[in-house]
Write a structure and sequence with these properties.
With 290 residues, the chain is α/β, with parallel strands linked by helices. The protein has 11 helices and 9 strands. The protein folds into 2 domains: 166 residues, 3-Layer(aba) Sandwich (Rossmann fold), CATH 3.40.50; 105 residues, N-(1-d-carboxylethyl)-l-norvaline Dehydrogenase, domain 2 (Orthogonal Bundle), CATH 1.10.1040.10. The chain has a 5-stranded mixed β-sheet with strand order 3-4-5-6-7, with helices on both faces. A two-stranded parallel sheet has the order 1-2. The protein has a two-stranded antiparallel ribbon with strand order 8-9. It binds acetoacetyl-coenzyme A (CAA).
């Protein structure tokens, strides 16, 4: 997601410093950006010169340093300790006037802001995957987020060609409070043998006009991320309706976390989505769809 955010920022004319702890992730992000921009040139939406200028505005920084930025967007994994640590360091190592945004999918912005010396300048700026395509940016004010911070993030989202929608700071905000229980419910339906991966996806695509069925989408989002968000909802609301399906836990334990791992509910090892062989211990209803 960091790469996608860097792409839309650079395409809007901003100078971007792209940091990751791992050079491999930076390289992967840059390759994806190059591929996306090359496609836009092919389709006549960008000139060669514009493509080159966008790439030139992205400066990859593999080492942590003093980042001289006006606006920082954190897009690390959905782990509260990782995010709190990053925000402590961003607080020390960016100018005191900088706004610090988190692309968290579910974690409390109030809690993140509280570990900094500038909670009024901390905001949730939640992009959606694939970032260059998806229009929504959910903007989440923590309890202490100031109106000027909100206005700056709102203006930035619009400049990036997005549609900002405000949400209050409760677990999962609006998007994942609704999306993730639906995806988790699909896993329960599979677990209980109501349908197969393919039949459940077909029902939601053909019956509800979703562009991806819940299993394709869960693989796309990452089952580790889905599980992490369910844990935040369960812990945050203390309500059993948010409990993660045991089958989802097993997939994550197996390392079958979706497209990025080559295996999730589908087999992605060939680079395209293929049916996966049913694992041991799951009901995976025999032919319910036929
Ligand atoms: N990166 C950049 N561009 C991409 C892309 C990617 N990964 N995948 C597709 N695109 C572009 C294509 O280039 C194409 O652009 P053009 O029309 O300009 O050529 C366009 O998107 C449509 O692509 P396709 O025709 O190949 O495929 P599609 O019509 O099936 O659309 C999709 C692909 C947009 C991803 C669509 O399947 C979709 O909307 N899926 C649902 C995505 C979704 O729900 N995302 C939110 C996930 S939740 C989240 O991100 C947040 C969270 O907190 C969990």
């Amino acid at each position: 997601m960091g790469g996608g955010i860097a792409q839309v920022a650079a395409a809007a004319g901003d100078e971007v410093l792209l940091h990751d702890v791992n050079q491999q992730f930076i390289d992967r992000g840059l390759r994806t950006i190059e591929k996306n921009l090359a496609r836009s040139v092919e389709k006549g939406r960008l000139t060669e010169e514009q493509r080159g200028n966008i790439i030139a505005r992205i400066d990859a920084r593999p080492k942590w340093e003093d980042f001289d930025v006006e606006f920082a967007v954190e897009a690390a994994s959905e782990n509260v300790e990782v995010k709190l640590d990053l925000f402590r360091r961003m607080d020390t190592d960016t100018p005191p006037t900088a706004i610090l945004a988190s692309n968290t999918s579910s974690i409390s912005i109030t809690r993140i802001g509280a570990v900094t010396s500038r909670p009024a300048q901390v905001i949730g700026m939640h992009f959606f995957n694939p970032v260059p395509v998806m229009k929504l940016v959910e903007l989440i004010r923590g309890l202490a987020t100031s109106q000027p911070t909100f206005d700056a993030a709102h203006a930035l989202a619009i400049r990036y060609g997005k549609v900002p929608v405000a949400a209050n700071d409760f677990p999962g905000f609006i998007s994942n409070r609704i999306l993730c229980p639906m995806l988790n419910e699909a896993v329960f339906a599979l677990y209980e043998g109501v349908g197969t991966v393919e039949s459940i996806d077909a029902v939601m695509k053909l019956g509800m006009n979703h562009p991806m069925g819940p299993f394709e989408l869960a693989d796309f989002v990452g089952l580790d991320t889905l599980l992490a968000i369910m844990e935040v909802l369960y812990e945050g609301y203390g309500d059993s309706k948010y409990r993660a399906c045991p089958l989802l836990r097993n997939y994550v334990a197996a390392g079958w976390v979706g497209r990025k791992a080559g295996r999730g509910f589908y087999d992605w090892s060939s680079g395209t989505m293929q049916p996966a062989s049913p694992p041991n211990g799951a009901v995976h209803a025999a032919g319910a769809a036929r």
